[in-house]
Amino acid sequence: MTGTANEQARKTAEGLVYATGFGNEHSSEAVPGALPLGRNAPQRAPLGLYAEQLSGSAFTEPRAANHRSWLYRIRPSAAHPPFVRVEPRAVRSAPFTECVPDPNRLRWNPLPAPEGPTDFLDGLWTLGGNGDATQRSGMAVHLYHANAPMERRVFSDADGELLIVPERGGLLLRTELGLLRAVPGEVALIPRGVRFRVELLDATARGYVCENYGQPFRLPDLGPIGANGLANARDFRAPVAAYEDVEGPVEVVNKFCGSLWTATYDHSPLDVVAWHGNHAPYVYDLRRFNVIGSISYDHPDPSIFTVLTSPSDTPGLAGVDFVVFAPRWLVGEDTFRPPYFHRNVMTEYMGLIEGAYDAKAEGFVPGGGSLHNMMSAHGPDRETFDRASAAELVPQKIDDGLAFMFETRWPLTLTAQARDAGHLQRGYDDVWQGLQRHFRP
Ligand SMILES: [Fe+2]
Fold this sequence. Notes:
Homogentisate 1,2-dioxygenase; HgmA_N; mainly beta; 2 domains; single chain; Jelly Rolls; 7-stranded antiparallel β-sheet; EC 1.13.11.5
């Protein structure tokens, strides 16, 4: 059954078309004439649809920060039964209070395969995070491992937007605003409050999720880089309107202030026939990232690799940045080329989508992750240090891996399940043992 479902999802995903551009005011209708012209809420919306605004920002936020979409749907979202709180499986939320914050450097192997049929939502497993979902500040790191599609079930997250980073297996994301395909090497973003369902393109799917409670991700400013570069706005793709007209029970799971709440609707809420606005999901291919780097000397700070940033009230200080280490050339002269040793006031969670990362010779594997909390000392392992210190500095192409980082302004506190996980590596500190003293005054 699942194989057939995968095949159908793959066929659907192959034929998808998109609108392009980051943060655009998109307009889309799945049925001609469904989108009203010249106004948002006519006395009678076209085709007997209901008009509904979905706000991702306060009405009064500055225009550049204002997020909202108008949805034209078969039934209004207000028509639903009461939600009932359910026990979450492995999803946890901020504030994270199960553990004390840990200054140690930590590293995990991939999340183990689930036992029995497990969809994306049941397969979500929270590693940790910071902030407070009710204050709309901070973030959480989740991983997922799924082997079944979400069937007659949709999810929405009132606590934050979800940046999904597939590592193994493709996803078909059926959202209120339309369909997206996201395969390893791409990332997908589901905005706060947008309902969606995840189908699988392959037998299993594994990856990472950054749940961002704070300001929506935006493209970083470019400063002296100029008008182009890093993630180019035109490479982001938004869905076009696509609706399902499904009667019968559909479970709607709503993450609200850290808890999961469920209600059984008598229809699918993915019934938006037309929409316009800028509060919309999107997908981005990380291989489109225009990598900027040093062409003289020194390893630049990794902020140069920022794809998306969630700003805070302090200029330049992100609630969370999403950073990618994409294929690039290293040409620095008289330079230690891998990432340098450092201690960072920001907290770094790193994951690996494929291949290897240039600061770690081994142990950091696709699907795994490392956590270097605020001010923890880290950098290249001994083997990498020895090799890079002696390497002949010819131009070198780094193209054997795709790593990323969620970098956040606050320390990250683990969940108990992450602290006690069987897939937490023991002895990660050892990678920095044996770094010899060379100072002989
Ligand atoms: Fe670091």
